[in-house]
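Final report, closing paragraph on structural work. Over the funding period we assembled a curated collection of sequence-structure pairs, and we close with a single example.
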Amino acid sequence: MNQRSAGRGALTIALLMFAAAAAGADTEETIRNLLYPPLGTVVTPRPERVALDNGMVVYLLEDHDFPVVDVQVRMRVGAIYEPPEKVGMAALMGEVMRTGGSETYPGDDLDLLLETMGARLEVSVSETDATASLSTLAEDAWTGLDVMADVLRRPGFPEEKIDLGKVGLRTEIAGRNDEPSSILIREFDKVVYGDASPYGRHTEYATVEAITREDLAAMHATFVRPDRMIMTVYGDFDAGAMRKKIAETFGAWPAGSGDAPPDPPVPGAMAPSVHYAKKEGTTNSSIAIGHLGFLARDPDYATMEVLNRILGGGFSSRLFSEIRSRRGLAYLVASTPGTGFHHPGTFYARVETRIDSTVTTIEGVLEELRKIREEGVTAEELSRAKEGILNGLVFDLSSKGAVLNRLALYEFYGYPSDFLQQFQEAVRTVSAEDVQGVAQSRIRPGEFQYLVVGDEAKFDRPLASLGMPVRELDITIPEPASSVEIPEATVETLAEGTRLLKSASEAVGGSKLDGVASIRLRYEGTMHQMGQSIGVTVDVRKVFPDRLRTEISLPFGKVVQVVSGDEGWMESPMGKQPMPPALLKDGRDDLYRDPLYFLRSSVAHKAQGLDQAEMEGVLCNAVYIEDERIRDWIVYLDAGTSRIVRMDYMSMGQSGPVSEAAVFKDWRESGGVFVPGSIEVRHMGEKVYEFEVTEAEVNPAADPALFEKPADLAEPPPGG
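Its predicted structure, as stored:
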């Protein structure tokens, strides 16, 4: 949509809303009463179907309206075929096939070539299949097909692109509990399919780290082969010439040998149960109620789609009208039919509601589910639902290319070629009696799984009031395996560790450390983030043991981060907001790791002396500190002065937990104790901060208001 048409669309909506308000009409009723002209029908093209000798199926459809050729290859490979200890392998394989390119077209060269051609090539792997898509000008179609074939057949899988892909996967893991809605969808799949099922499991740091280049190459060799592919080619080309080109480019690729693993099974019926995922700091609850669905090839498929449209499939649906509009209980409300092409999906009603109306909202949803089963639907509801589905198909399949890809999808999953026509006709003939029959047979309260994400202490009533035991889910993100190998402690190494920490304490102030209640430091330096280097000024105030205020002056403005006990908040040019849990933990850990704090006599540690090592060009005594808060914590002390040269530990980076190193130099006296004159911080060996200390003040007067929670702190958004 261009800006002009988008503007006309926005103006039309605004005028409709104004007219409704001026007439004093209810908005929902106005929407219901809008009249639309009949839409066109979905036109099914007649593509040419070609089967190559190696088993690859190709659909060809000419269209000379635009000088463009679009190619899509659907492959029978997905996350369901991963070993459980290497979850994430399929997605990583797909990403690196594209970013890493092939030996002929290495990733960076491939990017440049595609940019020069004005072409696009993408590869992605989902749960049950993978898709490679090429879009190019007609004049470059032959080159584009050569490139696509080489990337699919001979990917290079360079280690540096694998490492970069793993960073992305770790970033997703680190943020997966940020949004309650994401937790809800992920955990509901685990509840319905089972924790160990390929349809319900997800990546962990350990599974990502376990993936090797050899794993990606082996998965590619097993699954990415022509006899497991269907290709569509649509656009401005001559079918005869294209048929010959594809045979030359892809026909020499031999079919795979041996059978691929079978698709994993899905579970059977389950007893009803209530599940709870604790999410503190949110003012809302996310709710799902449902169970396993069924396959799209089932005779009830069309009727279930109509039922879902009436129940929760749009602004005029029952759940929207009753739970959101009339009762005002929900920010978001919807339902899914639970029908899938490869395997049964999950049928559920989903709601985002204010936290103090959680159980009341659940009861409201259950009442709507009861009504649609017992009381049926009206003729008006039925008519609108059928029209909505059929009209939606017209929009979804508005181009011949979209219909062509849908035809290929049907063959890919073993559906008849006229499945689209069968579905349309089935929708047209659905009756109110059909809908009620399917509601009674396919919506099964005796198998309902309830999942609530939120803070139960703030619910209107306990979840147990629903009459079933409540199972609390563990959604914590497991830490990655330790990369530090520490020898078994002995009496001698423990005594040496204690001695070394005491000498480190004496080197920076000894008994005077116990009198350090606070410190203010001012840094000038550089931040290195995402390939960019930014000059910054940082003013830090630490009040031990649990208050920290950091003011970072950046070229685009100031960012303030405050930790006060168990709470934290941030202020930036974008406003004030609560501090994300990971950042809050990192701030608290920073206080704890400060040498002026952890080296004082009042803080006891189990420390183990390790072998000497050269670090940063200095011979060092190494001390391993065993601490439940700080993982893999090793302190390297200058063997001559006992001052800290470097500390290694696990920290939280942008991509999740990372090995962090803090390097200290130029220790100088301030207020009777010593502080480092320069600090450098590295993540996974890469420099992220380098600062010079320009001011240091021990026990400065600190205004308590600097650590007070702002009264105008923004609440989390609905569902967040």
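The mean pLDDT is 91. The radius of gyration is 31 Å. We thank the funder for supporting this effort.
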